[in-house]
Amino acid sequence: MPTPARVRADACPGVFAPHDAADGPLARVRLPGGTISAPQLRALADAAEACGDGDLHLTSRSNVQLRGVTRPGLADRLTDAGLLPSTSHERVRNVLASPLSGVRGGLADVRGLAASLDLALCATPELASLPGRFLFAFDDGRGDVAGEGADVCWLAAGPAEGTLLLAGGDTGRRVARADAVATLVEVALEFCRVRGSAWRVAELDDPAWRGTPVPRTSAEVPAGLIPRDDGFAAGVVPRFGQLSAAQARALAEFGPALVTPWKSLVLPDVPADVFERLGFGGEAWGTTACIGRPGCAKSRADVRADAVFRPGLRAHFSGCERRCGKPSQSHVDVVAEAGGYRIDGRWVPLDEMEGNL
Fold first, then answer.
1. Angle at CA of residue 239, ends 320 and 78, nearest 5°
2. CA separation (Å) from 72 to 64, 78, 144, 157, 222?
3. What does the pLDDT look like over 239-250, one tens digit per residue?
4. Judging by beta carbons within 10 Å of its beta carbon (0-12, 13-18, 19+), is residue 126 exposed, middle or buried?
5. Bridge partners of 231?
6. Other residues' Cβ atoms within 10 Å of the Cβ of residue 36
7. How far is residue 16's CA from residue 302's CA, in Å, rounded to a whole number?
8. Which H or E run includes 29?
9. In a 3-state reduction of DSSP, which class is residue 351?
């Protein structure tokens, strides 16, 4: 069943329209395909220190957020770094791509498709009106980003051909890799024409916008060294998806990076001793959390201080029922309430929480 259409304005944050959080304005920087060069990563680190709270906060859409942006100059810094190619299309540049494509596995190499789509989006004036929550994706056939809730996705079926997914459903429409970008632009234009007040494809009533549900594949990027034919890549998993400016600069020493939809990063080409040189990042944290107090006025608790880490535990701690940042994969749902937390619907006092997870 379609989700009821939205009745309030789209307030998805960007750089020019930040969200007013309890700890100050929050600016979201789009990284189509999660790709960021080493100079851009350094520029983000500098911007976080000069304009915000000093940290980079990874998101579940392969983007980066800066919090507490109370000092001027952010837009100029990002523009100079090539991270703001369009002021009119800033908030619609939401594109996922399989992070390990071209590194290991997959049926097709989708590297470059996100950048090509970004250019096409920014060159199409009509698409500036897309809602900020509309999401594109290119899946190399392993099924990783196809399960991340994209409105329109090209899912590889082989090196040169794939299928078109709408809101996670297979439409049965075959699309050549060479036509994938143009097809996704075509779908987005049609959505703009018919959407009314809908923000997402799943909210449309027309059955023509549905497909056969595609089984979800659990394919998160592994933490640690990732063997490839000619060396190593690395999966870096910062706690709570949060990097200090110093950590970001340390990562940039190893070249470009890919931000994943799972609040981690892939360094495509690294030496075997990368984690010894970094001093962080090889842990496979299964626990995630929203920003909690004091960053969010709606949160009932400092969820990051209360979060429990244990091997094999996959849990998401939320300060309220909105459950911001929750993973799409199966997880233990932990929501703050007065004096404790509700764990998968069962209230547990704070001092007994760890024993009940």
1. 90
2. 18, 12, 38, 47, 38
3. 999 999 999 999
4. exposed
5. 228
6. 27
7. 29
8. strand 24-29
9. helix
Q: Which amino acid is at 100?
A: L
Work out the pLDDT band at 353, boundaries 50, 70, 90: confident
Question: 221-230 in b/e burial notation, b at 16+ Cβ within 10 A?
Answer: bbbebbebee
Neighbouring C-beta atoms of residue 110, cutoff 10 Å: 26
Alpha carbon of residue 178 to chain centroid:
25
Q: How far apart are CA 127 and CA 94, in angstroms?
A: 12
Strands laid side by side in the 224-228 sheet: 35-36, 257-259, 265-270, 231-236, 224-228
The amino acid present at 54, given as its one-letter code, is G
Give 165's strand partners.
Answer: 153, 170
Q: Give per-residue pLDDT as tens, 76-104.
A: 999 999 999 999 999 999 999 999 999 99
Contact 151, 131 (CB under 8 A): no
* Distances from the Cα of 219 to the Cα of 69, 79, 279, 333, 344, angstroms: 34, 33, 26, 20, 24
DSSP, collapsed to helix, strand or coil, labels residue 252 as: helix
* 111 Cβ contact list (under 8 Å, min separation 6): 97, 101, 102
